[in-house]
């Protein structure tokens, strides 16, 4: 029996088969990033998408598209237990 | 991986690889030299006071030392009653030292004078753990003797002056849980370096006083307080460690269960009969010193060799092959079941007459609170009135905010609330 891994969010121990932390409910193995970093990633992803669309279609697009919401998964804020 | 393994009675602890090991041997032994005691504590699991009918003589005990050495024992905690009330106490400690077995002593401290402390050091004892069960008023009430707390604190001073490492151990319950933070400061001031904390389980005299016991939801308050003390203690060179019946798998598990922050250890299942063994003063052998005598004694050293008892008897082997299939109740369906394996065996047995479902669990209390519930333990059957006996309890699940009866006063908590059934046979496992 190996030592249990710990939750990246609350540092509780994670049972091997549990999809989420039994104590805080966060999805296993993905660490929530600080809000400023999350925002920067979103802006960056939006800019890349805008440039890609512009290059493909040659027309102006909205200067900012917040498509970064799915880039960083902080996990569902739900309780999870046995 | 490693977990903390130590005797529940308050001895020193070591970090031992347990999850990946099957090299079972009695590495840590807790040996009750006599049931004679100079205290009559209201929570004593062995109902100590008077010696057992046929306790091992010094000569017999020295032969046990040879057997321990042959079995690979590394550390023995000498307890009682009061171990120093056995005529051969110092001779037995010295014999252990001579066989490269580390002798430790756990004591109430009443008789640990400066002279006895020096004699223990001369005999090779390295550490002494003094039982301090709260601040002065509470401690004296639990130990049923005025002056007991001062004797205990003097014992700590005498132990330190003799060059021994002073330790302390405390059983927490509803009588003394409010003393937690104050006691931490007192122990620091006294020069204590490590402190084992555990929960009073309904074993022996504690089984006669169910109102004194914590209810499972009390852990929701107690565990974060213990974690705060653990963190502060680490900053101040003081190690607080949970006993084996204090846990499990709440958010503070890694902090509480580790000797250093970077260890991040967790509970790894009951070690009774795996790396821990208990010996009662008449030579009865069981897998852990706190296990119930009737259900868990595998044999007696006056009739059978230690190796034979350890290797061939079923009561010593119950925890070696335990799986989640052996668990029941809440523990049987818990997400931590495969690793936790139901927590402390003697504690679960003390409540329900069999191991595998332990209501004293932080994660379990948290999980019930998430659903707006809590578990209440209600005493149903009395204990039999013998050492290491137990009664029976039932669990009632109730709304988390259910009204609670007014708590008894301190003097009422130490009174017998459920007299032992001295004419009634204890129920078998």
Q: What distinguishing features does this structure have?
A:
heterodimer; A: 82 residues; mainly alpha; 1 helix; 2 strands; 28% helix; disordered C terminus; B: 429 residues; alpha/beta; ten-stranded mixed β-sheet; two-stranded antiparallel sheet; 16 helices; 14 strands; 30% helix; disordered N terminus
- In percent, how much strand structure appears in the residues of chain A? under 5%
- Name the beta content range of chain B: 15-25%
Largest interface: which pair?
A-B, 19 and 22 residues
**What oligomerization state is this entry in?**
heterodimer
Task: Encode the helix/strand succession of chain B as letters.
Answer: EEEHEHEHEHHEHEHEHEEHEHHHHHHEEH
Question: Could you give the count of β-strands of chain A?
Answer: 2
Mean pLDDT of chain B: 93
Low-confidence stretches of chain B: 1-13, 423-429
Q: Total strand count of chain B, please? A: 14
Globally, the shape of chain B reads globular
The overall pLDDT of chain A, averaged over residues, is 59
Give the uncertain stretches of chain A in residue-range form.
Answer: 53-82
Largest sheet of chain A: 2 strands, antiparallel
Main sheet specs of chain B: 10 strands, mixed
Number of helical runs of chain A? Answer: 1
Distance between the termini of chain B: 32 Å
Individual helix count of chain B: 16
């Amino acid at each position: 029996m190996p030592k249990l891994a710990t939750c990246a969010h609350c540092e509780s121990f994670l049972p091997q088969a549990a999809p989420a932390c039994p104590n805080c409910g966060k999805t296993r193995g993905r660490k929530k990033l600080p809000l400023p970093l999350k925002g920067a990633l979103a802006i960056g992803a939006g800019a890349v998408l805008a440039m890609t669309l512009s290059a493909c279609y040659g027309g102006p697009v909205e200067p900012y598209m917040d498509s970064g919401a799915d880039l960083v998964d902080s996990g569902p804020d739900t309780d999870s237990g046995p | 991986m490693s977990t903390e393994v130590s005797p529940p009675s308050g001895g020193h602890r070591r970090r031992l690889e347990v999850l990946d090991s099957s090299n079972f041997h009695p590495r840590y032994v807790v040996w009750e030299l006599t049931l004679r005691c100079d205290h009559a504590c209201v929570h004593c699991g062995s109902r100590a006071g008077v010696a057992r009918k046929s306790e091992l003589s010094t000569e017999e005990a020295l032969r046990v030392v040879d057997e321990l050495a042959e079995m690979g024992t590394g550390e023995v905690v000498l307890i009682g009653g009061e171990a120093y009330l056995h005529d051969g106490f110092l001779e037995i400690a010295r014999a252990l030292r001579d066989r490269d077995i580390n002798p430790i002593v756990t004591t109430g401290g009443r008789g640990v004078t400066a002279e006895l402390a020096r004699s223990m050091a001369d005999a090779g004892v390295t550490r002494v753990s003094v039982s301090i069960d709260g601040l002065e008023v509470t401690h004296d009430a639990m130990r049923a003797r005025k002056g007991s707390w001062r004797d205990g604190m003097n014992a700590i001073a005498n132990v330190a002056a003799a060059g021994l490492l002073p330790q302390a151990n405390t059983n927490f319950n509803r009588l003394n849980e409010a003393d937690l933070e104050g006691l931490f400061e007192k122990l620091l001031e006294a020069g204590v370096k490590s402190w084992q904390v555990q929960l009073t389980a309904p074993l022996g005299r504690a089984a006669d006083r169910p109102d004194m016991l914590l209810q499972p939801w009390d852990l929701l308050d107690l565990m974060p307080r213990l974690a705060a003390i653990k963190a502060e203690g680490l900053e101040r060179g003081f190690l607080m460690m949970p006993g084996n019946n204090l846990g499990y798998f709440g958010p503070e598990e890694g902090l509480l269960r580790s000797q250093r922050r970077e260890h991040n250890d967790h509970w790894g299942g009951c070690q009774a009969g795996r790396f821990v063994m208990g010996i009662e003063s008449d030579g009865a052998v069981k897998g852990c010193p706190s296990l119930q005598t009737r259900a868990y004694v595998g044999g007696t050293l006056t009739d059978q060799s230690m190796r034979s008892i350890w290797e061939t008897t079923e009561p010593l082997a119950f925890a070696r092959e335990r799986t989640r299939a052996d668990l029941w109740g809440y523990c049987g369906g818990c997400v931590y079941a495969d690793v936790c394996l139901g927590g402390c065996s003697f504690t679960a047995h003390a409540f329900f007459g069999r191991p595998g479902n332990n209501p004293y669990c932080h994660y379990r209390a948290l999980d019930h609170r998430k659903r707006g519930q809590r578990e209440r333990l209600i005493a149903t059957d009395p204990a039999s009135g013998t050492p290491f006996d137990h009664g029976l309890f039932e669990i009632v699940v109730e709304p988390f905010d259910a009204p609670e009866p007014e708590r008894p006063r301190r003097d009422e908590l130490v009174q017998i609330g459920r007299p032992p059934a001295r004419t009634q046979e204890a129920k078998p496992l």
